[in-house]
Design a protein that fits this description.
CATH class of the largest domain: Alpha Beta
Number of helices: 12
CATH topology of the largest domain: Phosphatase 2c, domain 1
Strand content: 5-15%
Number of strands: 10
Shape: rod-shaped
Number of domains: 2
Structural class: alpha+beta
Oligomer: single chain
Distance between the termini: 16 Å
């Protein structure tokens, strides 16, 4: 079997979430339809109530129903706008039609005494909420059309009282349009600023994910041929708190699987520090000394702000003669799969890095074909909840201990659905015959 890592050994990073911009665009397309539904509902209800309620007046039924009908025509057109986004440039035709419709409704339900003139505020706000100061002027023209239409249809003279009322209405509505337009402009500025910040954050997270991927080893050509290694890391976010690593040492190779409490960039930074310090301690000696130096490197003193983060870690040195010396720093998820079918957990009572202060090096003799499988706790989530998940995982590993198959099948499970925690797997097989063949 080749000693380099297989394709899946490269850490997979999830793509940034693009759902929010898509939702914004979808909302922008459906807003005209929502606006027109309200206007059409108000107009139709006003017409029906004018017919059914004795205290409401119907002065011209054809005009009243024509006004309600025009709002329904506008509703059909906005439905077409949603289905055909390329027609969006014609959106303002709908509120323009509504000004005429409300004018006819007003004429048909009492003219100057109509209680439904206030409905003109709906198309006013619709237009004024669009960007550009010209959208303050358009509602002014539309309101004048609504107010003067009964005079044109009824062929009546505009009295002084009506002129005063028109001026007051125009002043008030132009004020409403101006305020609406300014609020919409400020909201657009804030939205753009938020989108810029989001894009900047996504770019920084993408860069952090790239850096984290570059820290994961992708080849094992430098480690002894007696050791075959396979690994995969599937973070739940672009940057995760899990990591694996391997590198050559004097008499063999060192392997690490770490799991930083938490997710995201903060956990990824801690993971990078732990990995780097462990690598720099390659000449220290025993694994417990390397872990101790790592804890010292993360210790920033009693007066420093606490991050409440710790790292569980399994750090292993394997020599070419089959001696495995290991430290279990609060990890507890490393399984030794014997070539004869037996298995045992490589665990200790030592505390995680960031919590404990001393660690013990344990020694285990490996036989040809033995496999050491270490996983993060996100892997257990793939096997259900509770203590039964550990039993199911154990049975899964014992059934087929081949490193290629273990990593491949666990990766398939990890990619099959959304995981709440990072999924990381590290599998090492000891086979001295490969070393002899290379020699």
């Amino acid at each position: 079997m080749a000693q380099t890592t297989s394709g899946p050994a490269v850490a997979q990073v999830t793509a940034p979430d693009r759902a929010a911009p898509l939702a914004v665009r979808s909302s922008a397309r459906t807003t005209p339809l929502t606006n027109q539904v309200v206007i059409a509902a108000v107009s139709v209800v006003a017409a029906v109530c004018s017919v059914l309620l004795p205290w409401l007046t119907v002065t011209n039924a054809p005009s009243m129903w024509a006004g309600a009908g025009l709002t329904l025509v506008g509703l059909a057109f906005t439905g077409l706008l949603v289905a055909r986004p390329e027609l969006a440039r014609f959106e303002l035709l709908v509120p323009a039609l509504d000004f005429v419709a409300i004018g006819l409704l007003r004429f048909g339900t009492g003219d100057a005494r109509s209680p439904f003139l206030a409905a003109v505020l709906l198309p006013v706000i619709w237009i004024a909420a669009r960007p550009g100061r010209q959208h303050v002027v358009y509602p002014l023209i539309g309101t004048a059309v609504t107010f003067l239409l009964p005079t044109v249809v009824g062929q009546t003279e505009l009295g002084s009282a009506e002129i005063v009322r028109l001026v007051v209405v125009l002043v008030v509505f132009i004020g409403v349009a101006g305020v609406t337009n300014e609020l919409a402009r400020q909201a657009a500025v804030r939205l753009q600023a938020m989108q810029d910040l989001r894009q900047q954050a996504e770019a920084e997270i993408s860069q952090a994910a790239l850096v984290q991927r570059s820290l994961l080893p992708v080849t094992a050509v430098d480690i002894p041929a007696a050791l075959t290694v396979r690994a995969v890391c599937l973070p739940t976010r672009s940057v995760g708190g899990d990591f694996y690593d391997w590198f050559p040492i004097t008499d063999g190779a060192a392997f690490t699987l770490g799991d930083v409490m938490g997710k995201g960039v903060g956990a990824g930074m801690i993971a990078a520090v732990v990995r780097s310090v462990l690598r720099s301690s390659v000449r220290v000696g025993a694994p417990n000394e390397a872990v101790g130096r790592t804890a010292t490197g993360l210790d920033v003193g009693l007066d420093a702000p606490t991050t409440e983060q710790f790292t569980t870690c399994f750090h292993l040195h394997v020599s070419v003669d089959g001696v495995a010396r290991w430290v279990d720093a609060g990890h507890g998820l490393t399984l030794l799969l014997r070539a004869d079918g037996g298995h045992e957990w490589l665990r200790s009572s030592d505390l995680p890095i960031g919590v404990g202060s001393a660690w013990t090096t344990h020694e285990t003799a490996l036989s040809p074909g033995d496999v050491i499988l270490s996983v993060s706790d996100g892997v257990l989530d793939l096997f259900g909840d509770g203590l039964e998940a550990l039993d199911r995982f154990e049975a899964f590993a014992v059934a087929d201990p081949d490193p290629d198959h273990l990593v491949e099948r666990l990766e398939e499970r990890g990619r099959a659905g959304h995981n709440e925690d990072d999924v990381t797997v590290l599998a090492i097989r000891y086979d001295p015959e490969l070393e002899a063949a290379r020699s």
